[in-house]
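Milestone 3.1: sequence recovery, worked example.
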């Protein structure tokens, strides 16, 4: 049995984490409850909701071990509900799974956030490995699950819904599964629908979400009241960064009320802007579908003298879709993303480059991510309503703006007559069903989520970290956004494939390098350095940058 000592080396800048030093076995770790239970069934807990806030953020479960090992663990129902009984996992009697050797995940298994290491590197940050456990905290007929989808559309939403329903039913014999309609506000303002393997059988072939979705409308007390009133004890929340923040406060309120309810987030973001996980579902599908728009732009541009095709792709704050679609296509002459500032006029500017490329090739294709160049069009934005119902910045159409600027330039200078075609495929891309690889990925996400909830874990987002599925505490996926690192090799690859100007001065490069070095921290010293490196190493761009 390993000795467990509370470690006091928490950062002075951050709330104090619960840190435990563990030498031999994670299973021996006992964490201090993040909040004291009120009662198992809720009791009069609703009246005392004033302390709702960021308790799990204030008390993250940190476990430390030998040679710089650090586990950022996720909450468990037993942290705040005492004496919960456990049951054998029904999977052990499931004929489909009985052939699997070592089917159950070892309790101590964790997944390293950083896999490129040196001889002397500390072992660094780890997350709890996802997967089925030998003992579960819910009996099959006790489970009353619900599923909700929030935020914008993304290919794969229906597949995740389907696989949660089928997984709960086929693996754990669960029969009570509710669909909450219309996003968060559906908990208190809409009807629910009962879901079964039969009713969701072919929904993965359809785009959108059969549950419908919404922005805004997150009223924590009303949502948790609804969960409590309906007797729901597993909540599966599918959505992006905003949704995961919402899920986090729902979890905190549930914990404050002392309810035996697991809250699980399944990350959805077509923009791929969720931190820590390797990549989000629907991203591959989006990049693939974007090829059709880029091809169309290329055909149009190539079929007319001085043709220019401009394609706007999704990416409010992160340019991953634009970057990957450009790299995949090879027909793109210039890719503009939010992370890399550009300018239009003068030497080294975009307009000069457009002119040069037209002279050389007679046509060109520009891909622009929707969040690119927003500083340049900020003046126009100021006069508009600038937030959506969820508080996301509303952007002006950079594609239209850019197209107009290019047209104005060539009209003004009279240097050449151009033919510009602008394509915005956003909603066509978002609305398609997920492709084969995303379908498989969605299945794994759903299964990992179910296994985690059944094992009593709660307050976590599920997702692959270096290819292995893990349970990640909510705050880790909401505190930063995943962005293209323009000082990484992947962006350099793009620049070299398009041969576009980088639009960067030496100062921009220095600033970008500095920015990459300052993500939020929990710990000091070596652990802090390791975390910093880990954050940067886990974006698609870095992990694939070879
Ligand atoms: N900070 C927050 N706290 C609680 N709920 C939030 C927060 N940010 C967003 N939400 C809720 O999450 C839902 C989805 O958010 P949104 O930003 O529209 O999409 P996404 O989750 O895809 O980023 C909305 O219902 C919104 O009200
Ligand atoms: O028109 P809507 O639904 O507000 O969505 C537009 C936004 O949705 C996105 O597709 C991503 O949305 P989420 O934040 O919901 O994942 C962005 O690319 C785009 O800015
Ligand atoms: Mg979002």
């Amino acid at each position: 049995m390993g000795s467990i000592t509370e470690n006091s080396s928490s950062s002075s800048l951050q709330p104090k984490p619960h840190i435990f030093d563990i030498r031999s076995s994670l299973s021996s770790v006992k964490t201090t409850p993040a909040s004291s239970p009120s009662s198992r069934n809720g009791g009069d807990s609703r009246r005392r909701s004033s302390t709702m806030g960021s308790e799990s953020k204030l008390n993250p479960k940190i476990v430390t071990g030998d040679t710089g090992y650090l586990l950022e663990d996720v909450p468990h129902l037993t942290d705040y509900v005492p004496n919960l009984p456990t049951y054998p996992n029904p999977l052990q009697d499931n004929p489909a799974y009985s052939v699997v050797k070592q089917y159950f995940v070892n309790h101590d298994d964790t997944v390293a956030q950083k896999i490129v290491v040196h001889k002397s590197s500390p072992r660094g940050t780890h997350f709890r490995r996802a997967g089925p456990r030998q003992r579960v905290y819910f009996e099959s007929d006790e489970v009353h699950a619900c599923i909700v989808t929030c935020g914008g559309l993304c290919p794969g939403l229906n597949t995740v819904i389907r696989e949660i329903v089928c997984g709960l039913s086929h693996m754990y014999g669960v029969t009570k599964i509710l669909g909450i309609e219309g996003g968060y506000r559906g908990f208190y303002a809409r009807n629910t629908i009962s879901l079964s393997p039969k009713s969701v059988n072919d929904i993965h072939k359809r785009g959108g979400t059969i549950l419908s979705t919404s922005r805004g409308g997150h009223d924590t007390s009303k949502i948790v009241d609804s969960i409590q009133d309906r007797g729901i004890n597993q909540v599966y929340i599918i959505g992006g960064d905003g949704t995961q923040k919402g899920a986090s406060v729902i979890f905190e309120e549930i914990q404050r009320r002392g309810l035996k309810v697991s809250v699980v987030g399944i990350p959805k973001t077509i923009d791929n802007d969720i931190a820590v996980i390797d990549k989000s579902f629907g991203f591959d599908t989006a990049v693939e579908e974007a090829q059709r728009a880029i091809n169309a732009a290329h055909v149009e541009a190539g079929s007319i003298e001085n043709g220019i095709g401009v394609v706007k792709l999704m990416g409010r704050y992160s340019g991953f879709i634009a970057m990957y679609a450009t790299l995949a296509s090879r027909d793109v002459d210039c890719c503009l993303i939010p992370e890399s500032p550009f300018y239009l006029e003068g030497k080294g500017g975009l307009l000069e480059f457009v002119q040069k490329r037209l002279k050389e090739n007679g046509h060109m294709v520009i891909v622009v991510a929707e969040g690119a160049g927003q500083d340049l069009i900020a003046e126009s934005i100021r006069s508009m309503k600038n937030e959506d119902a969820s508080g996301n910045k509303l952007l002006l159409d950079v594609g239209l703006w850019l197209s107009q600027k290019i047209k104005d330039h060539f009209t003004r200078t009279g240097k050449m007559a151009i033919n510009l075609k602008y394509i915005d495929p956003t909603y066509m891309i978002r609305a398609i069903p997920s492709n084969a690889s995303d379908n498989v990925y969605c299945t794994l996400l759903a299964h990992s989520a179910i296994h985690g909830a059944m094992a009593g874990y709660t307050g976590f987002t599920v997702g692959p970290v270096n290819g292995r599925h893990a349970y990640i505490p909510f705050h880790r996926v909401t505190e930063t956004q995943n962005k293209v690192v323009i000082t990484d090799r992947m962006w350099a690859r793009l620049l070299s494939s398009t041969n576009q100007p980088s639009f960067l001065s030496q100062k921009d490069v220095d600033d970008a390098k500095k920015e990459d070095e300052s993500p939020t921290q929990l710990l000091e010293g070596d652990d802090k350095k390791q975390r910093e490196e880990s954050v940067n190493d886990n974006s698609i761009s870095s992990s694939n940058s070879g």
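Residues 283-302 form the longest helix (20 residues). The pocket of 1,6-di-O-phosphono-beta-D-fructofuranose (ligand 2) is lined by residues 151-152, 240, 269-271, 314-316, 370, 388, 430 (CB under 6 Å).
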